[in-house]
Specification:
The chain has 9 helices and 13 strands. It has about 300 residues and is α+β, with helices and mostly antiparallel strands. The chain folds into 3 domains: about 130 residues, no CATH class; about 70 residues, no CATH class; about 90 residues, no CATH class. Strand 10 and strand 11 form a beta hairpin.
Length: about 300
């Protein structure tokens, strides 16, 4: 489904305002405060991309991989938090916690934290705003393309030192685009920036600097094709089952398929089936209902070239 940034932004912002004002004695005052803050902070979001300064600045001098700001000691005092494109608002109940966060953040170049004079989230909370000062927004509300591409490239090269495998775009695009996102854009980066991020990642992967490429997600295939792959494997497994063995193998299109199959409730109604080729080179799972010859399944995972053999 196409990612429609304006409608997604409206939904995110509505939810953020509701979360931060619904418990206040005077929610309208809180809404007015947020209207001003969101002009500066940008749209509300669900999670920062890995290269965002909110995550990378507190990590300087380390090679640790962090995908959530709650993993960072700098932000230990956060509580009741809403994230935005440029930073976040957090509302601890303790004034000491609020001051602890201010002290920790304001020691770091590129981040700025300040207290709000009025309440958000709850009347007895002490709201703090944390903003990445170098994040500049385009007219569409996303991060300036040149900056986002530079931060992404710098973070990617840094992580190469500890990498064991190269991850494909489809495996890690939520870590690159931030959340929520579409196939090539998000509330953090527009389509122009997202397309170039993918090109950078693929060039780095093809260079070998991260190691061998690990394929896992098959999101590049349409849902119809993913369904076909899972259904082909599951239906063939059922056809080859001797109705006794819980583990067996069969060959299909030149590949050995290893199967785990069991009667879910021991009543003959539902079969639980898992199929694996290689060491997770391709994996499919689901359920088969004999009474109406029906299959339900999760999305298959694995290597694209192998998966496409079963279309």
């Amino acid at each position: 489904m196409e990612f429609r940034a304006p409608s997604v932004a409206t939904e995110q912002n509505t939810n953020a305002i509701k979360y931060l004002t619904k418990n206040l004695e005077d929610p309208e005052v809180g809404r007015r405060v947020l209207d001003g803050l969101m002009q500066d902070l940008g749209n509300a979001v669900e999670g920062f991309p890995d290269w965002h300064p909110i995550l990378t600045i507190p990590q300087q001098g380390t090679t640790k991989h962090v995908s959530w700001f709650s993993q960072l000691e700098t932000y230990d005092a956060t509580e009741h938090t809403v994230e935005f494109v440029r930073g976040f608002i957090t509302c601890p109940y303790s004034e000491d916690q609020a001051n602890q966060l201010l002290d920790a953040v304001n020691q770091l170049t590129g981040l700025h934290a300040y207290r709000l004079p009025g309440p958000l989230y709850a009347d007895n909370a002490y709201p703090v705003v944390v903003v990445a000062t170098e994040v500049k927004l385009e007219a569409d509300g996303t991060i300036r393309s040149r900056d986002a591409l530079t931060w992404f490239a710098q973070q990617s090269v840094k992580e190469a030192w500890d990498a064991q495998v190269a991850e494909t775009w489809w495996n890690i695009r939520s870590l690159i685009l931030g959340r929520p996102h579409g196939s090539r854009s998000s509330l953090f980066v527009n389509q122009h920036t997202g397309v170039h991020m993918r090109k950078i990642l693929e060039a780095l992967n093809n260079s070998g600097m991260f190691g061998p490429i690990r394929e896992s997600s098959l999101d590049m295939l349409s849902k119809k094709k993913q369904d076909k792959i899972s259904e082909t494997l599951i239906r063939t497994a059922v056809t080859n089952w001797d109705k006794c063995s819980e583990k067996f193998s069969f060959e299909l299109r030149g590949e050995i398929c290893k199967v785990d199959i069991r009667d879910t409730w021991d009543d003959g109604h539902e079969l639980s089936i898992r199929i694996e080729i290689g060491e997770y080179d391709l994996y499919a799972s689901g359920f088969y209902y004999e009474e109406d010859d029906r299959i339900t399944h999760s999305e298959p995972r694995g290597k694209r070239a192998l998966a496409e053999k079963f279309l």
